[in-house]
What does this fold into?
Amino acid sequence: MKRFTIALLLSFIAAGMLQTVVWAQSTRSVLDGVYTKDQAGRGEALYVKSCAICHGDAVPGPYGTSMGPSLVGDEFLANYNGGTAGDLFSKIRQTMPGDNPGSLQPQETVDLLAFMFSASRWPDGGTELPPDLATLKQIRIQP
It folds into this structure.
């Protein structure tokens, strides 16, 4: 019976370690090239049209305006460092643009995220950000 208990305990420990390894491998960050240059370009065009009036010039220069917070730099990281792309996606979808909240389509929202990541000088990659909340929740925001 004692051997069975020890074996069962070791199985639980091994399963927990495996789960931790799988989670760590499935969680990415903005530093892993999670968007494409083309997607960031679409996001920039939308940013200029719908966001810059409140959030200011994205890069370079003073970030944010008296109407809206910065979407890059220290002020942005103070709010979102350690969060996920899914958190930011949800916030944008529910509250932006300020004069018509909730009007952005999911694809437009991830294109804006791609532009914000590009403006933050996080690397691009070979795959676009998908407009899928579950996938976006696996992408950490970090400097």
